[in-house]
Amino acid sequence: MSTVLDRIRVGSAPDSWGVWFADDARQVPWERFLDEVAEAGYSWIELGPYGYLPTDPARLADEVDRRNLKVSAGTVFTALHRGPAVWESTWEQVGRVASLARAMGAEHLVVIPSFWRDDKTAEIIEPPELTTEQWTRLTRGMERLGRAVRETYGLGIVVHPHADTHIDTEKHVERFLDATDSDLVGLCLDTGHYAYCGGDSVKLIETYGERIGYLHLKQVDPEILADVVANGVPFGPAVRRGVMCEPPTGVPALEPVLAAAQGLGVDLFAIVEQDMYPCPPGKPLPIAVRTRAFLRSCGA
C-alpha cells in the first residue's frame, strides 16, 4: 500500500515536453505545452527557459489561470565560481526570471550551475573540477544570491545539482552543502541527475533533509547510463540516446524517494522533468499522462 503523500505537490515542466531553449523550431509551441500539461492532470508548472512562456505577467497569468495551472518556480543558470565579475550579468538574468516568478505567485528560484561542457556542441569549455578558490567563490556567491533574491523578490533559492556541472556527484553536493548557509541556500534534488552522477537520493534526503527545498522527479535508464559513463558521453547526446526514461522503468525507484521526502514533514514541490530534447511533438503527452497516473499510484 502506498504512503499518503499529502506534503508533496506534483507538477511538470516544459522540459518534459522537450523544451530546453526559449526559442527553437524543434520544440512544441508554448500554447500546446500549457494545454497538454493541464490535460495530463498536472496543476503546477515551472516557467522553463525564460522567454518560452509569455513574459508579460498579466498575459501569462491569464494563460495559466484559464487552464487551472499555477507556477511553482523559475530557473536560472549561473557561473558564480567565476567570481564577482559575473555578478552583474547574473543578477540581470535573475531579476527577469525572479520578478516573473514572483508575479505568478511562485516562491522558489531554481539555480543551476553553469555547464563545464557546451550544452549544444559538448565541447569541454572548463575543467570539471574547481580549484579551492573557485569553490569559495561559488559558495559565497550562492549565499549572496540567496540573500539578494530573498530581500528583493521574496523567493528562496534552491540549487540544482546537474550533470556536466561542478555540483554533480555526492562528493561535490555534500561539499557544497557543508560550505553554504542553510538559511540562505536550499537544494533542488533532481533524482535523475543525482542518479546519473552516482548519487543516492534517499540517502541525501535522510542525511541533509533540512536542506531539501524542492524536488525534480526523473529517472535514468541504467543500461544507457552505463554506456554513457563508460564512454564519457556528454549530457546532451546522452539525453538524445534516451538516458532519461519514463517512470517507473528506470532508477532510482521513486516510491522510496517520495516516502523519504514526505517524512521530512514539510510541503515540497515534486516537479516531473523527463529530459527529452529534441522529441517528436506527439511524444510527451501520453508519457505525461502515464507518469501522472504512476505518481497517483505512489500516493502523490
Automatic annotation (TrEMBL):
Domain Xylose isomerase-like TIM barrel per the UniProt entry, residue ranges: 34-296
Molecular function per GO: isomerase activity
Keywords linked to the UniProt accession: Isomerase
InterPro entries cross-referenced by the UniProt entry: IolE/XylAMocC-like, Xyl_isomerase-like_sf, Xyl_isomerase-like_TIM-brl
Protein name in UniProt: Sugar phosphate isomerase/epimerase
